[in-house]
Design the sequence.
């Protein structure tokens, strides 16, 4: 399923893929007869890792010519490529700090996240630093989940 959001909508969320998971039949035994009961089908939702991740900006980022102030390029949408281990190493570690694994409490390190956003979007850090605060939070929140452990794959 390929879901494309309305480009005029707010920050873009990743599409959610739905998978049907069929449960096996269970035999229920009572005093009088045996009855086959099929458990209800559950719908498992899984976040689809689709790249690039795009976030619409409230306030566009404008790249200006130094001497005249002329707008050379304008970004209305931030587009981030998929991060690699090299990106994490380059910014000095994961931009997300897990405060409590049991409760799932996290926060992002703003300095590392700004450097990561610059690397993944190929926009100079000086322009990331001048972003609207809500735009920065939206982008950081969208990227945050990509720097958390995947406990389901741990052996």
Sequence:
């Amino acid at each position: 399923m390929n879901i494309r959001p309305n480009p005029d909508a707010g920050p873009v969320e990743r599409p959610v893929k739905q998978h049907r998971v069929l449960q096996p039949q269970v035999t229920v035994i009572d005093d009088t007869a045996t009855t086959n009961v099929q458990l209800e089908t559950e719908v498992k939702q899984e976040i689809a890792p689709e790249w690039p991740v795009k976030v619409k900006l409230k306030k566009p980022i404008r790249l200006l010519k130094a001497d005249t102030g002329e707008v050379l390029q304008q970004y209305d949408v931030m587009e981030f490529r998929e991060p690699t281990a090299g990106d994490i190493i380059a910014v000095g570690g994961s931009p997300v700090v897990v405060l409590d694994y049991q409760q799932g409490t996290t926060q992002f390190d703003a300095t590392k996240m700004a450097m990561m956003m610059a690397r993944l979007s190929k926009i100079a850090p000086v322009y990331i630093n001048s972003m609207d605060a809500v735009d920065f939070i939206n982008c950081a929140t969208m990227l945050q989940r990509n720097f958390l452990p995947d406990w389901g794959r741990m052996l």
User: Anything to note?
Assistant: Strands lie at 16-21, 25-29, 34-38, 42-47, 53-64, 71-80, 96-100, 105-108. Confidence is low (pLDDT under 50) at residues 21-28, 31-44. The first strand starts at residue 16 and ends at 21. The first helix runs from residue 85 to 90.
